[in-house]
């Protein structure tokens, strides 16, 4: 998990805690134990057309209970590792870490991993209720982007300065992945597309082009459920958000 807003130096200004005033580079390592959200959703069978998994915790704020959301396609992809955890480092969660149950979302800002989880539900138009005030590291303007702009290498410890031992990498030309066939000229209406939303007949649209994924369901690395849930409609946002250029090709 990534969290750029966990600076104890600033927290101590509001309320003094234990330990020294570490800054934005503070980090720790933990091993969580739990069950993959993907396995739970397979049993729960989210309704067709749902796009987000919304989560709510027991900590009440002035304007409601703390809650966040992630794309349902992310939650249902076993490779993303989204889990409901009940242990941390081999022991039951401590109250401060979300006992009895918390969400763990690898690769996303820590504020999305709801503690003291009470409710999860799927929605077709859900968005964050209480997002973290800092910019996620990998998005435009995030701290990782700033480090790279200043010549820093995230993997060698020279954050914010160019490494003296590593030559600057050459800029790579952006790869434009072509996913369409110029020989296909058929026009498919939204009404026709909406009829192909079944386990044995799954079509979806990405950027105005329709794809028949029926034969690919059994081979999809993220499982067939994520495709079936998005079938019969425009899946552009989900597809682009979760797939690399290699996967698109």
From TrEMBL:
Residues 185-249 form the Cytochrome b5 heme-binding domain. Keywords: Heme, Iron, Metal-binding. Pathway: Energy metabolism; sulfur metabolism; Sulfur metabolism. It is an enzyme of class 1 (oxidoreductase). The keyword Cell division does not apply. One of its GO terms (biological process) is sulfur compound metabolic process. Its EC number is 1.8.3.1. PROSITE patterns: CYTOCHROME_B5_1, CYTOCHROME_B5_2. Gene3D superfamilies: Cytochrome b5-like heme/steroid binding domain, Oxidoreductase, molybdopterin-binding domain. PANTHER family: SULFITE OXIDASE, MITOCHONDRIAL (PTHR19372:SF7), SULFITE REDUCTASE (PTHR19372). Belongs to the cytochrome b5 family. This is sulfite oxidase. It comes from Rotaria sordida.
